[in-house]
Design goal:
The chain has 19 helices and 27 strands. The protein is α/β, with parallel strands linked by helices. The strands form 5 sheets. It has an 8-stranded antiparallel sheet with strand order 3-2-4-1-10-9-11-15, with helices on one face. Strands 5-6-7-8-12-13-14 form a 7-stranded antiparallel sheet. A 5-stranded parallel sheet has the order 19-18-20-21-22, with helices on both faces. The radius of gyration is 25 Å and the shape is globular. The two termini are 30 Å apart.
Length: 609
């Protein structure tokens, strides 16, 4: 997830690009850059590591770079650490082509190897640079043909802004599965990832569809198919204010990020599944290494800890590897036994969580191999771990994690399936069935999001509650932990999660008339027991929300309201049950008039113990 902006017209481009990037910095903030075309056709490229302010200083707020057309980029790293060399725009030999990119090129490694065999020398570690060199290779004066031939070789998602040195004043743009809009102003035209980048200059926009190619020159905007046929497109007028536009029209970043989960999950799993098989070559783990793992130790904080609790069930079920889970703040203080053959897995969104980083360093001191599951390329945990599996969720702005959590879940699923196959714990047919279901998760998440109004209606019943209890068994207990945390951290309602079988060991004494209980029941061999627990609390006056999968309709006889999720493999239900739980927390907080994105006393990344 990165931010793209482009401008061509009668004004100086660089100040406009910087202003647009400032409004897109929430999409990425580890590096930034611009490519501006001068009247003589030369492309001047300026890019820096760090936040946009560094680029603003280097260009004297745009006054030091002259030209009336250009493209800019603010980066959220996916391939290559945050450095000036890896910042966009990327250029081909002799700066004939400049490209900015939002998305992921899944087959960039094979493209890079092919281009290197033809003598291309790369200046960065990024996937994007391949696109610049490919387009340059095919360019013989026809931009449409060059772009079409290059993208025919590309797999992945992309929104691209492209400059050709030999076409002064012209910007080309195209997208596939990553957002792109064009805007038409009085003195020029624009491309951008989101509306906020151009709202200061125009409200007249057109949303680019998949595989539509756009040519912009001054105020002239033309749309083409990849075979060169010109397309007719309708422009619309944006009515949002600037604040709403930054959130993509959503009321809060949290709701926006909840809705971004299908794409975030797709971006995390899709590049790692090739021809129906999981490929984790990026880890550098051989099959013998995987077979030699005797135990997995997982550690994390907050929601990432709940991912680990879920992953324990998944690893032990699918890969038959024993798994221990510790809060990172507790791991090194209990003097754990970390024996040879142990793999430490650290999960963190930011990659800077102080306790998790300390746990990682502790394990390394003990000579234990470490694997990090993080979202931020080049973060401290990513740099210090022996292996890294990145979750490509893009930046999260809301304090309460949603899409980062969901991508961490599927990253663990990928590992467990791969380990299970290599270790012979998972039959080939079962492996293939699970991989297919993993690929179906984004579509099923979308289906749940389409039904959010039912959750919103029910949320009104929770707003006045003093306490809420979440119960579940097995994987559903792990999901209960996350559902409870989401509710308490943004609604300030006292909320606890319990393994349902523990109710009679004390917790049931807290149930009284009107107490809200959320019962999660997706595991087939445990549903009857979970329903029995729901009957117990309901008979004592609890108001019960049942959360289960389609087909388990008997639950309706024992709850007061039911939410259904689509069927999937039992190991993957947490990826689906978390969606209504996130929505429930969001709408309860909204009903109470609270600051959803910035709950009191909390920070996005905890970098102190």
């Amino acid at each position: 997830m990165c931010g793209i902006v482009g401008y061509t017209g009668r004004s100086e481009a660089c100040p406009i690009l910087l202003d647009g990037l400032q409004r897109l910095e929430y999409r990425g903030y580890d590096s930034a850059g611009v490519a501006v075309g001068a009247d003589n056709g030369k492309l001047e490229v300026v890019k820096v590591k760090g936040r946009l302010e560094a680029l603003r200083e280097m260009t004297d707020s745009g006054r030091a770079v002259h030209g009336r057309y250009g493209i800019g980029h603010t980066r959220w790293a996916t391939h290559g650490e945050p450095t000036a060399a890896n910042a966009h725009p990327h250029v081909s030999k002799d700066s004939r082509v400049a490209v900015v990119h939002n998305g992921i090129i899944e087959n960039f490694q094979e493209l890079r190897q092919s281009l290197e065999r033809h003598g291309v020398v790369f200046a960065s570690q990024t996937d994007t640079e391949c696109v610049a060199h490919l387009i340059d290779r095919y360019y013989q004066g026809d931009a449409v043909e060059a772009i079409a031939r290059a993208l025919a070789r590309v797999r992945g998602s992309y929104a691209l802004g492209i400059l050709f040195r030999d076409e002064p004043g012209v910007i080309w743009a195209i997208r596939k599965d990553s957002p792109m809009i064009v805007g038409q102003g009085e003195d020029g035209s624009f491309i951008a990832s989101d509306v906020p980048a151009i709202l200061k200059h125009t409200r007249r926009v057109c949303y680019v569809q998949n595989m539509e190619l756009v040519r912009l020159e001054g105020t002239d905007i033309r749309f083409y198919s990849l075979d060169g046929e010109e397309l007719k497109k309708e422009f619309t007028t944006v009515e949002w204010d600037a604040d709403a536009a930054e959130k993509g029209g959503y009321a809060h970043f949290m709701l926006k990020e909840i809705h971004e989960q299908p794409k975030a999950v797709t971006d995390t799993i899709s590049p790692r599944i090739r021809d129906g098989r999981i490929n984790l070559e990026e880890l550098g783990l051989s099959d013998d290494d995987i077979r030699g793992i005797r135990r997995i130790q997982m550690t994390a904080c907050g929601s990432a800890y709940h991912v680990c609790m879920t992953a324990r069930y998944v690893f032990e079920s699918l890969a038959r590897i024993p798994v221990d889970v510790d809060l990172a703040s507790e791991l090194r203080y209990r003097n754990p036994v970390l024996e040879e053959g142990t793999l430490l897995v650290v999960v963190s969104q930011s990659g800077e969580t102080a306790d998790s980083l300390a746990a990682l360093r502790y394990a390394k001191e003990k000579g234990i191999r470490t694997l990090a599951i993080v979202n931020v390329v080049g973060s401290s945990i990513a740099r210090e771990a022996d292996m890294v599996l990145y979750t490509w969720a893009g930046p999260e702005i809301a304090v309460a994690t949603t899409k980062a959590y969901s991508t961490q879940l599927v990253a663990c699923d990928l590992l467990a399936l791969h380990f299970g196959l290599v270790r012979g714990a998972l039959a080939e047919a079962d492996y293939q069935a699970h991989v297919r279901e993993l690929q179906e998760l984004p579509r099923k998440i979308e289906r749940l999001l389409e039904e959010k109004e039912r959750v919103q209606w029910f949320a009104g019943k929770l707003a006045a509650r003093q306490s809420v209890f979440f119960i579940g068994r097995g994987l559903d207990y792990a999901s209960s932990l996350e559902g409870s945390l989401k509710l308490k951290e943004i609604s300030y309602i006292h909320s606890e999660a319990y393994a349902a079988g523990e109710l009679k060991h004390g917790t049931i004494s807290l149930i009284e008339n009107g107490t809200m209980v959320v019962g999660i029941a997706t595991q087939a061999d445990l549903i009857e027991k979970e329903i029995s627990n729901m009957v117990e609390v309901r008979s004592r006056g609890a108001y019960v929300l049942g959360l289960t999968s389609y087909g388990h309709y008997a639950i309706e006889d024992h709850d007061d309201f039911t939410i259904y999720v689509p069927k999937t493999c039992e190991a993957f239900y947490p990826s689906l049950t978390v969606i209504p739980l996130q929505l429930l927390a969001y709408y309860v907080s909204l009903a109470k008039g609270l600051d959803v994105d910035k709950p009191r006393n909390l920070a996005k990344s905890v970098t102190v113990e």
